[in-house]
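Schema walkthrough. Field components (list of strings):
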Amino acid sequence: MARIVQKYGGTSVGTPDRIRAVARRLIARKRAGDDVVAVVSAMGHVTDELVELASAICSDPPDREMDMLLSTGEQVSIALLAMAIHAEGHDAISFTGPQVGIVTDPVHGKAKIQEVRGDRILEALAEGKIVIVAGFQGATEDGQITTLGRGGSDTTAVAVAAGTHADVCEIYTDVDGVFTADPRIVPAARKLDSIGYEAMLEMAASGAGVLQLRSVEFARNHGVVIHCRSSFNDSPGTIVKEADSTMEQAIISGVTHDTSEAKVTIRDVPDRPGVAALVFTCMADANVNVDMIIQNVSEDGTTDISFTSPKTDLVRAKRAAEEVVAELEARTYSVDESIAKISLVGAGMKTHPGVAAQMFRTLADAGVNIDLISTSSIRISCVIEGDKVGTAVRALHTSFGLDSDAVIAEVSPGCGEEV
Amino acid sequence: MARIVQKYGGTSVGTPDRIRAVARRLIARKRAGDDVVAVVSAMGHVTDELVELASAICSDPPDREMDMLLSTGEQVSIALLAMAIHAEGHDAISFTGPQVGIVTDPVHGKAKIQEVRGDRILEALAEGKIVIVAGFQGATEDGQITTLGRGGSDTTAVAVAAGTHADVCEIYTDVDGVFTADPRIVPAARKLDSIGYEAMLEMAASGAGVLQLRSVEFARNHGVVIHCRSSFNDSPGTIVKEADSTMEQAIISGVTHDTSEAKVTIRDVPDRPGVAALVFTCMADANVNVDMIIQNVSEDGTTDISFTSPKTDLVRAKRAAEEVVAELEARTYSVDESIAKISLVGAGMKTHPGVAAQMFRTLADAGVNIDLISTSSIRISCVIEGDKVGTAVRALHTSFGLDSDAVIAEVSPGCGEEV
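Field assembly_structure (string):
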């Protein structure tokens, strides 16, 4: 007997029929002798509808009241899923995040889970019930309802698995697992059977959409084994856990890409101490997330400072860049929205020199120009022109021996969205 | 400065525009110097939509999960109303029933409020906020979400007024207050300026739809003054409070009617001790609410037992009646669904003999036959043929001097539904 936490996204519970299908899946697992906890998101477009309702009333709704509003979405899902299990003749009980002791900090709209009190779930499991928990939500110590923001339900699932010492946290998506590259771009991409937390974190941070970065971080910090798998079949997916000797230590786990960032360059900045500090203090004050940074060598006492930033932060980034230009008496600033970041990720990279050289050579051979470079101990990222992203990712995938023998046949049509 | 609780029903918060209108009303009251708490229902048809969703999934959903589902309706309303107040530049905070310490018994679907802990509301009021509380819901001592059933939001409002020692609980409806009779049937009906708890209870119990019986009972038990008024204008409505010497002690407060009951008669029952006990134990076991009971005098050692019961209980009542007939070897049973109950209510009735006689004479003069009679110290009810209800109510209204001088002009078009 194992204790299993399963997470289902908004598409999986989007209609009464799909809710019934999830119910049957849970019951089958329960019948097989396991203790089962389900963490679910709001039905399909419910969250969008609630956001629309709010914006019809208030252009700038208080975060606390948005959380009060949005948290109803998951509450509807858990009640309906419990009913669907009941309709099949099995016993189930639903809990909201606050009810089940998911304690968060008080940052409404993007709260962080501080603690999951597993007692109530364990009691209900001991009574033979299938337990349904609302994803994406929690409460502060003094009972304010909070939501966790993007990827919140995955994080809830991992946190519930940690709080109940579950054997595994199964996260259901519309793809078969974690792939060596996005199958939409690389038909020869292969599913990974397993991957270590560190490599998975780098994959998630550099563009692999299948698992949310936050949930992987939480899993690593609490030693929760994640099984990322498809809700459309029963095939094994990808196991994410502490890398150990039994795990294949691939030099390269995958090639990821990310086209969601733009590049901002401050031109002809006086090259004196404190300039970079001033630029990025300004950006931080404007709440602009900065990813990669490069400062060119000085010419004639001036230099260019470039950085990449999510396109969603671009309006704030431009405003801050104007201030910086005026403050530093720089010449001007420019913005390039047609960039792509491609990354090679692999835990084996640490002990294999020459990976970077091979990457740069492969890109050069493919006619891809490199604009910015950044590295971690198990990742190398390059910013390139946006329209070369497919060429670059495919060339790297082949060059590092990641291509599958069974091209196309294994390719999943999905795009790694939660379901 | 007064402390005011205002209750708005589902129609009043049915659209973003209406929510904004309620927000402005609350702000105006706050600006006038009062502390304001609003209790709101779910938007318009939200509850019906949730019920429909549930029945698409489960024919017999567990009551606990229905409460989990339905309580989201009010939670959406409170968040949106708080946002609407925020959009007007004022400070507001919303609370669910469980958050604000509305403690109920554990009877899901029709829980009774046991306690309202006013601290959290009072703290928020002290911070200058308009406080919004979800109607219809609460939580048990161990945190299970419950709903209060029919009329729940009115009861929440009265309970919040009691828990915060408010000066008045204003309940907004689509009519101007409590009338001497239903204006749709009696054009000459007058609005009452005030009425005592006991008379209001009898009015509500015998068919006046404007206030829910439960909320009036709660108000009487906790000494909460109710102001029942229209949400369409600022005219004073009807004050419901402890009858005292300053209150006009009308002999008759009003004439009510109720066509929601049916009459069941068990025919030729052996006339021996314990028979009535058996009949009504059977009905109670079948969860049939029984209102009026009459047992005719015995003829030839057998008698007829009649009672009235809500039509909604009729399927169960018939099944129980069949059992009773078999058990007692009675001849048969019959059902009459075309009856009406008319009632005269008035606290002054206690000290004015002759009211019953005048009532029966008036009905006889109007050609209305009386089928059953029941009385309390301040109410006389008669069951009559259903198609005579208008004739009977108008005749009594005139006979007891209740007709308004300004006929028709004062008549409200509404029907006493919550808005």
